[in-house]
């Protein structure tokens, strides 16, 4: 045990480890807060779909050799988020099918671009690290960390400020709309925030594993608690704990960061399910 | 001036017109029951009144001090709500959302009114309980208390008793009757004509044999239609 702590203390000397922890925890916090709403609104797959879009956008940015890849990825993902949240009502293609369609298309398109216009000697390595995140969180620059902190702070503020509104449109959008809440506007805000989180989280877990960040904490918390406030707080707490534990474990054991955090999330979900069942049918 | 005036409404969706040229008005203090077969456009009409789906043509005008956001709404249960983790108190308070603008928290008088409305619906003891653990009748009372937080002027009820057992149904109609007597205008979609109509003051019937008028007028019209039919079949035989 002491060996482990010493080893951790040694790692903490490195700024990139501290950066990884800060960014990881912030992203976990933001995605779990939004996750509660997404899961309850039956939009769990949106995170997955958007992350595939972000992958495609990243491929485009790479091919264009854009100096700032974020400047390409963020707007494209935002656009997809707005389009996806608009489906579900008044569209010919139903919500889940639309998500599936957009996500596979951008995945295939991105991989195609990366292969055809490759500038790097190791295409499959590049693809793998974009999909699974591999080690990129440990190579964050100070600027990227500042950017992530700023965006996460904005997300947290928005969520706190509009918490009651988000509850109202999640529980009963028709009622909220009928009594004069601008549900369309808040849905748009949610879409934008989700897209921002996805783009941030891509550095951490890669595009294939992001939906785990969004859905697992919310699902775990829903096994244990029965009020919206308790579920939200618990999801945020679980998510932060899993992110911390996962990142530390991955540093110590030399495992991929994203996959380790997701494994921690899955383990916590199993524990919460068991606890919920023991307490009597959640 | 009536609270709601509908002029020459045509309603429908997916390029299909279900209701044509419908005109009627809702006055303060009315207890209006909307009846008609399945697919006659009852729920579509309600969505038009709430501004959720615009009519194909014609218009809905509010008056008598009523604004669009003064309409409380009791919807049919959605799938999302069946396993939603939220306490009764959280849901009832959310009725105030429409009038809060950008204010992020509830005021103390809003919290007090929410408690009062829960008492009025007989669910004060359930305030901390989870919505999905309640019985169907209790859930409907929670949604009614929420609607009362949104407004005390006019309530639109979409099949408030569907899926409830007879005793709970009777209870539900008693509560709605009490709200009506305390000055809330009621507009209710219902299937269950025998139980619902005695309390109503006015009837709107959609579909075949369109009718709008007082309840007594409706009974006369129905009786006449039945007699006509009997007379016709007697004549044939």
Tell me about this structure.
The complex is a heterodimer of chains A (282) and B (237). Chain A has helices at 2-12, 15-40, 44-64, 70-86, 95-116, 123-132, 142-161, 163-171, 173-178, 183-205, 210-224, 228-253, 257-278. Chain A is mainly alpha-helical and 282 residues long. Chain A has a single domain, classed as ABC transporter involved in vitamin B12 uptake, BtuC. In chain A, helix 2 (15-40) packs antiparallel against helix 12 (228-253), helix 3 (44-64) packs across helix 10 (183-205) and helix 11 (210-224) packs across helix 12 (228-253). In chain B, the strands form two sheets. Chain B has a six-stranded mixed sheet, with helices on both faces. A three-stranded antiparallel sheet of chain B has the order 2-1-4, with helices on one face. Chain B has eight helices and nine strands. In chain B, strand 6 (154-158), helix 6 (166-181) and strand 7 (185-189) form a beta-alpha-beta unit. Chain B is globular, with a radius of gyration of 19 Å. Chain B is an alpha/beta fold. Classes of the chains: A mainly alpha (282), B alpha/beta (237). The interface between A and B is medium-sized, with 30 and 40 residues.
* CATH topology label of the largest domain in chain B: Rossmann fold
Instruction: Please compute the radius of gyration of chain B using only Cα atoms.
Output: 19 Å
Percent strand of chain B equals: 15-25%
Examine the secondary-structure arrangement and name the CATH architecture of chain A.
Answer: Orthogonal Bundle
CA-CA gap between termini of chain A: 37 Å
In short:
Chain A is mainly α and 282 residues long. Helix content of chain A is 81%, strand content 0%.
């Amino acid at each position: 045990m002491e060996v482990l702590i010493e080893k951790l203390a040694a790692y903490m000397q490195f700024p990139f480890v501290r950066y990884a922890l800060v960014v990881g925890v912030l992203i976990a916090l933001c995605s779990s807060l939004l996750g509660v709403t997404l899961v309850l609104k039956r939009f769990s797959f949106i995170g997955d779909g958007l992350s595939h879009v972000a992958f495609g956008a990243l491929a485009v940015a790479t091919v264009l050799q854009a100096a700032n890849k974020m400047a390409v990825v963020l707007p494209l993902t935002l656009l997809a988020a707005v389009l996806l949240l608009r489906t579900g009502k008044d569209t010919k293609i139903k919500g889940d099918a639309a998500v599936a369609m957009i996500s596979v298309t951008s995945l295939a398109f991105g991989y195609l671009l990366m292969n055809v216009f490759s500038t790097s000697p190791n295409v499959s390595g590049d693809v793998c690290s974009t999909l699974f995140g591999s080690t990129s969180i440990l190579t964050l620059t100070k600027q990227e960390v500042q950017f992530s902190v700023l965006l996460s702070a904005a997300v947290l503020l928005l969520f706190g400020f509009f918490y009651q509104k988000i509850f109202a449109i999640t529980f009963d959008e028709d009622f909220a709309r009928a009594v004069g809440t601008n549900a369309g506007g808040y849905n748009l805000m949610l879409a934008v925030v989700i897209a921002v989180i996805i783009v941030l989280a891509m550095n951490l877990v890669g595009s294939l594993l992001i939906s785990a960040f969004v859905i697992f904490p919310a699902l775990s918390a829903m096994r244990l608690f029965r009020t919206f406030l308790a579920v939200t707080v618990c999801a945020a707490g679980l998510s932060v704990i899993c992110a911390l534990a996962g990142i530390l474990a991955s540093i110590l054991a030399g495992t991929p960061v994203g996959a380790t955090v997701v494994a921690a999330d899955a383990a916590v979900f199993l524990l919460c399910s068991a606890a919920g069942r023991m307490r009597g049918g959640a | 001036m009536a609270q709601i005036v509908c002029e020459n409404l045509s309603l429908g969706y997916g390029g299909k017109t279900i209701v044509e040229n419908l005109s009627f008005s809702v006055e303060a203090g009315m207890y209006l029951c909307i009846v008609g077969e399945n697919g006659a456009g009852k729920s579509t009409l309600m969505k038009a009144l709430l501004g959720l789906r615009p009519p194909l043509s014609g218009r809905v005008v509010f008056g008598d001090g009523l604004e669009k956001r003064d309409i409380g709404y009791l919807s049919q249960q959605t799938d999302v709500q069946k396993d939603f983790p939220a306490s009764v108190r959280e849901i009832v308070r959310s009725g105030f959302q429409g009038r809060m603008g950008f204010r992020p928290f509830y005021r103390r008088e809003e919290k007090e009114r929410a408690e009062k409305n829960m008492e009025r619906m007989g669910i004060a003891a359930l305030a901390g309980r989870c919505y999905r653990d309640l019985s169907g009748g209790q859930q409907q009372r929670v949604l009614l208390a929420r609607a009362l937080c949104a407004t005390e002027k006019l309530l639109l009820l979409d099949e408030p008793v569907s899926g409830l057992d007879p005793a709970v149904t009777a209870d539900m109609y008693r509560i709605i009757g009490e709200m009506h007597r305390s000055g809330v205008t009621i507009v209710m979609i219902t299937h269950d004509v025998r139980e619902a109509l005695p309390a109503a003051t006015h009837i709107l019937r959609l579909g075949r044999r369109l009718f709008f008028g007082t309840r007594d007028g409706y009974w006369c019209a129905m009786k006449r239609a039945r007699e006509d039919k009997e007379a016709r079949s007697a004549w044939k035989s």
